């Protein structure tokens, strides 16, 4: 059963992380949210999809870009599939990484600056 509370909690987590702590992995997000197995990564991914839909509807950069796979520095394939379906990314896979880098830069540019 999906946790309706998870997407807003995940958004808050991502908004509050310091710039030098992002991006984080799906596993780090699951741990920070206190999720217990089973299917912790799947639950994070579903919450990220909710955030992506909200961000596109509101005309905001995709905050989900702050979460990446531990196997590299890119989100999982589902992120790209949904970004294409939401018409945020080009359909051509060869352009996905560049589109992701631009999206990540947009998210980072809108993050609040903290004195430090």
Concise summary:
By secondary structure, the protein is mainly alpha-helical.
Radius of gyration, rounded?
Answer: 14 Å
Q: Give the oligomeric state of the chains in this entry, treating copies of one chain as homo and distinct chains as hetero.
A: single chain
Label the structural class: mainly alpha
Low-pLDDT parts are none
Count the DSSP helices.
5
Distance between the termini: 41 Å
The helix-strand sequence is HEHHEHH
Shape: globular
Largest sheet: 2 strands, parallel
How many strands?
A: 2
Helix content: 40-55%
Strand content: under 5%
Q: Strand order, main sheet: write it out.
A: 1-2
Mean pLDDT, rounded to whole units?
Answer: 93
Description:
By secondary structure, the protein is mainly alpha-helical. Helix content is 53%, strand content 3%. The chain is built from 5 helices and 2 strands. It has helices spanning 6-16, 26-32, 40-58, 77-85, 96-110; strands at residues 24-25, 67-68. It has a two-stranded parallel sheet. Helix 3 runs parallel beside helix 4 (77-85).
């Amino acid at each position: 059963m999906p946790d309706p509370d998870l997407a807003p909690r995940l958004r808050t987590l991502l908004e509050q992380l310091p710039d030098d702590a992002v991006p984080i992995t799906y596993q780090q997000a699951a741990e920070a949210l206190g999720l217990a197995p089973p299917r912790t990564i799947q639950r994070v991914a579903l919450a990220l999809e909710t955030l992506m839909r909200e961000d596109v509807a509101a005309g905001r950069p995709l905050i989900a870009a702050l979460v990446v796979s531990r196997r590299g520095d890119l989100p999982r394939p589902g992120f790209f599939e949904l970004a294409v379906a939401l018409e945020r990314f080009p359909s051509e896979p060869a352009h996905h990484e560049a589109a992701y880098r631009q999206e990540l830069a947009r998210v980072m540019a809108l993050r609040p600056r903290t004195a430090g």
